[in-house]
Structure formats: structure tokens, C-alpha cells
Amino acid sequence: MLLEVGCLQMTPSQTNGWMYPPTGCVHLVRELANVVIHILWQLKLLVIATNWARPLATSRENEDIGSTIEASVAFNLSCGTLTPNAEGQEIENKTQTHVELTDIIITIGMASILYIMNSLPSFDDLPPVKGMPQGCAWGIFDKDDKKDLLGTLNLLTPEVVKDAVGENTLPNTISWPIGSIKIPGFFRKSLCHNVIKLEDPASRSHYGFDDEVEFNTQASSQWDSFAHFMHLPTGLAYNGAKPTIDAFQTPKSAQNLPTLDHWHQRGCVTGRGVLIDFKSYAQNHGISYDQFSGFRIGTTELEAVAAWQGLTFRAGDILLIRFGVTETLGQMTGAEQGVAMSSGKMCGLEGSKEMARWLWDRHFSAVASDNMAVEAMPPIIDGVEQPTHELVLHQWCLSLLGIPLGELWDLKALAHACRASGQYSFLLTSSPLNFPGAVASPPNALAIL
């Protein structure tokens, strides 16, 4: 029997096995197929795809969207499992009722999906959370009655990471040096580096050095934890967390806050990075913009740059956007930096619900840029400029959706390497500082092409 399934997505469930999404786009060629799929959806049966999930995920950036894959499988309707039938023969089971479907042609309609056919709810289909706006992802990644602290980093599964590794060998550091901004904005502390001379107390002979470093974690390249910015109407952070100074200083309470130290329990960040080089795109297309004027780009521009670069997104991608801000700041004096950083105006992504929806629906695991806030400043709501603390994407991404944000990254060398190779995807690794209650941290990030 021939069955064509368009836009079919599958993902590891948070309990066990794989799940058919209720929102899959399904075209039934045969009436029996219609009955089978209807039953599967109604019962929300699990799919065990250990042996055949990887062959399905053959889509690559340069291959046609909608590539087809054939598989011979058997549906077990009573227990809700699907098992591979490599020989094309009926699988014997005397206690279960089987419907065997052979020569299944599954049309993969999303080239962004590799080893995981992601079935996270779309932004508009996220289940409602009492007291929160539509589009809140609290509880989506919870497991075993334990509140999730990692958000969309859960998309960086072993399969996604293995594919990202590939044969990339040339590293590019994308962390701006700490202390690059001499006078940080918003009254943040600049770098203080104290070098200590080590001497033997008895002989007074000198034998080495120690050093001490003090700085604000927001003053250069950084990851923001989900505890950095809260949902203003409720005062709650991601997944309903309630960060307070006392909570950060109480070990038991701090363990339940969505801070960066929890990233180390999953091996930090390793995955497929993708670069949207808006600066080069703008130069190529005659688009001029002032980096310190509040210039902003929307989803249409992001899609246009990706198409210009020949870049296809995949589930779990770590999205980087280059505006050229750190490059410009690096050419300024300390005084000039202070004026620029404190102006309250900077180019970036459009801060809107539509942008949040786009980021979630493309299932990025994290987003980072070379500007100060990822989103443009000042925030504009209903056409009216708002104070900085009203940042829109910070509330959506950090507080409601659990999408990590990285800021002030150094993307110039990476952009040049991508342009030279014609490849805008790469292996990205990042290991933030590992200390309890980390609200933010230098990313210590590498892009390996």
C-alpha cells in the first residue's frame, strides 16, 4: 500500500519513544491509510524509531526539499509501537493485532530537520499556561515531574550534535575579549585585572604570578541565563521560576533557578551554528544603516539573507546574526564607547511577538548576535518607544519560551571565513563559566568550519 505523508514531523518525547504530532500535515492516498493514521492520532501512539529514524533524516542543505525515503514498517495498533521490518516480511506476534504497511513513501517537507523530525507545538499551538500570554513554553520540556531549566537547549540531542560535528577542522573564536569595552553602558563595572606577584616568604625570592579578575558578565560577549530577565507583568522567569537575591544566595533555592551552571550538566552547548551575515548582505544590496540608531530587521529580512547565502535552517540550529556592532565599538576610544553604549539606541532584530513566533517555529536552540541585546533598542511597542527595561524579545525568549540569548559576540572573522568557503553553517561549541547561580557568563565560544 502506498502512503504519502507530507510535512510529517517526529521527535523524541520527554518520556519514552517517539510521537506522532497531532498537527502533522497528512495526505492520504488510500482509504485504509486514512483509517490507520486516524487511529494513530486518536490514540496518540508512540513510535519506536531507533533503527529507521536516522535513514529518514537524509535531507541536507544542498538537496531538494521534499526528498523521499522508502521504509518497510509494521504498525502495532494495540501497544502503539512501530517496528522496522528490514526484510519486508510480516512481523509475527501472536498476542497483538498488526496492520502491515509496506513501501511507505514519506515526503519530508522540512529540509531544516535532520536526525529529528521535530514535533514541538508551533508558537500558536503552545498549550495555555494560566495567567501567562499565549506563546508560553513552560512545561514543554519538563520530565519526570521535574521542572526544566534548559529550554530550547534540549533540542541539541546527540543526533543533532553528531551531525554538526562532520569534518569541520578550522576553529574561529567568536568571543570578544573581556575588557574590549572600556566604559560599559548602564553603569556596569568594567574589567579589573589584578596581577599578584608570588614570593617565598623566607627568601623573598620571586617564583611566579597569580591574577584576580573582576568584571560585569554583561560587559562583553555573554550568554544571558533565563534568570537574567523576567516577564514584567508577572515577575516570573522561565518555567515559573522566582529569582530573588535571597534565592541566589541560598544553595537549595539556587539549584532550582534556570541559571547557566545547569548547562554543564548536559555538556554545555555543542551544535550546528548558522550565521546570518546581515552586514555583508546590506553592503551587497545597497542598504545603509546606523548601528546606533535603533535600526531593526524583521523575519522577512532574515529569510532573505538566508536565501542569499544559500542557507537552510534545521531544528536545533544555533542562530548567529551579524550587524557589525562589536567591530565598530572595537575601533572607538573608551569615551566614545561609553557614549555609544549609553545612548539606548542600537540596531538589532525587531522586538515583537512575530519575531518570537518565527524563532520558536524554526526551533532554534539558541540565538546570539554581535549587538548589545540581540533585539533593537529602544523597544517599540504599538509604534511608541519604550524604556530599555521593556525589551520585548528578552521577555519572550528568556522568560516565556526558554530560548537562550547571546550578545556582543565577535562575528567578523567568522563572517569572512563563511564568505570565503561559501558555507554558513559550522560546528559551534560554548562553555560558559561554571559557578552556582550564574546569571550571565562569557560564552567561551568557538565556530569550527
TrEMBL record:
What are its GO biological-process terms? L-tryptophan catabolic process to kynurenine
Organism domain of life? Eukaryota
Query: What name is this protein filed under?
Result: Putative cyclase
Q: A GO molecular-function term, please?
A: arylformamidase activity
State one Pfam family annotation.
Answer: Cyclase
Q: Which family does it belong to?
A: Belongs to the Cyclase 1 superfamily.
Q: Which InterPro entries match?
A: KFase/CYL, KFase_sf
